[in-house]
Amino acid sequence: MSSSPLIWVDGEPAQALPLPDRGLDFGDGLFETLLVRQGVPLFLPLHMERLAAGVDLLSFPDCIDAAKAQLSHSAARLSDLDWAAMRLTLTRGSAPRGYAAPLEAMPRIVITAAGLAADRSQQAAPLHLGWADLRWSSQPHLAGIKHLNRLEQVLVANQARDSHWDDAVVLDQQGNVCSLSAGNLFLLESGRLLTPSLETCGIAGTRRRLVLEQLAPALGVAVEQAHISPEQLLEADAVICCNSIRGLQAVASLGDRSWTNFSMCEALHQRYVDAMAC
């Protein structure tokens, strides 16, 4: 596989997106980023369930079966790679001008894939974070789903890059901790794990769900969603972040605060590796 990503549009190899497209015009769509191991998309049910929730929320025609079939077909092309990243994008497709969606929309399915150099079964180095200047917008109706409107993430990622951080912690409009630009957060406090609740903003990550429902319970560790203040985050015994490509990573520093206790992250990572093998 070349260094250039493979691209499929509606199941056919492509190098361009047919226009007009409501995903480009209005961000009218959804996406999933999947980790692929030797041609097999990992934790596919979690991704498809979140995608289905977004399809329902945005009132897209039912396209989950078609998206899953095209995803599996494209992933099979990656069987010679140990690890790859794949992005599945659904847009509402072509339509006349205007914000209102057409009554007979035909969703467009775009899949891109590229190989990954790092072994994703090995735990990545701890992260060095900063505080984002921007706060996530509050929109409870869209909270949790992975829609295409990502300008806020672009701005936060730009700040992290320019500040030489690995990523940045972003607060919500109420001043509570929400997430990184590209990942969910967990903090260890008195032997239990807490993760920010996502009532008004943020993405309900597949690895976040995995920690909540499988990995932490398997370790006998209590885990819950809560409103978390910046001060509470800084006072935590440990901080962990997660996303679909990086997996679980410990946080080494946030501003002037540093952590050296990574044992919880290491234990969760081992459970994560075990789950990937299932």
TrEMBL record:
The prosthetic group or cofactor this protein requires is: pyridoxal 5'-phosphate
Q: What is its EC number?
A: 4.1.3.38
Q: Which Pfam families match?
A: Aminotran_4
Pathway listed: Cofactor biosynthesis; tetrahydrofolate biosynthesis; 4-aminobenzoate from chorismate: step 2/2
| Keyword check for Protein biosynthesis | no
Please indicate if the UniProt record lists Transmembrane as a keyword: no
Per its record, the protein catalyses:
4-amino-4-deoxychorismate = 4-aminobenzoate + pyruvate + H(+)
Assigned keywords, A-Z = Folate biosynthesis, Lyase, Pyridoxal phosphate
| GO molecular function per UniProt | 4-amino-4-deoxychorismate lyase activity
**What family does the Swiss-Prot or TrEMBL record give for this protein?**
Belongs to the class-IV pyridoxal-phosphate-dependent aminotransferase family.
Q: How does it assemble?
A: Homodimer.
Identify the PANTHER family for this entry.
AMINO-ACID AMINOTRANSFERASE, AMINODEOXYCHORISMATE LYASE
What's the protein name? Aminodeoxychorismate lyase
Q: Which organism is it from?
A: Candidatus Seongchinamella marina
Q: What is the lineage of its organism?
A: Bacteria, Pseudomonadati, Pseudomonadota, Gammaproteobacteria, Cellvibrionales
Q: Which gene encodes it?
A: pabC
